[in-house]
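Hi everyone, sorry if this is the wrong subforum. Our group has a chain we'd like a structural model of before ordering constructs, and none of us has done structure prediction before. Sequence below.
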Amino acid sequence: MKTLAQLTISGTLSFWIFDRWYGNTYLPTVPNIPGFVPKFESYDTPLAAGIGLMGSVLALSYLLIAGIVKACTSKAKSILDEKLNSKLRIVIISTIGGTLFGTLGYIFPLTLGDGSYQLGSIFGTAGSNISTSVLIASSFAKMLTYWMSEETGMVGGLFYPMLLIGSMCGRVIVNEFGTSWATTLACSLVALPAAICPGPLTLMMLGISTFNLSSRGGIPVLVCTVTAHVLFVGLGIPQKLMSKAPKKTQ
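Answer:
Right subforum, don't worry. Here is the predicted structure as tokens:
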């Protein structure tokens, strides 16, 4: 990751500076080839870095909410274990978790399920009709509902919720500032998982293939993934959070 981050930063800066003034590189712009959606703009690279910063902030919120939910459920389990048997405790905790999940799902429909169904709405024209307040509130509610599900017995994957959370925030950027639809959403799709997972090239390919970007169009996605990871794991934020977590006793 250290080597990849260094190469990405130096290579992207040199590309961006040269391309901004000279207007051409060995990478074709291919704006007219069918299948490639966006036209590469000079502001796409700094925009991607900003979305990477957003991904690191979302990752911090994601882990903080995880810690709060884990602490609350652990305390509740300990209290119930003292008063009841473990089997009854499991039923009570699962019932409470399901009730809370269903209630939040009624208030915030974008939080239901793993998020794969809602991604199409966020990407499509329907996403432009969802208000900014709903999108932002739903992104944080999704963090809460995922960790409640994780801690109270429901099953589900980790990856799709992170894709949805970042995409909702990316939709806010498109709606409010009118940035490139494909570039912004391709970057925001992978910004949150990129902050946590050391797989920037894999996540870059996910963003490129989802929005059918060209070689030049894929540059911002790589910038976003590396920026998010460097500003989160690279700065040691999750490591510091883990060091402050209470130690498990045998």
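For your construct planning: The chain has ten helices and no strands. Residues 21 and 42 are 10 Å apart (CA to CA).
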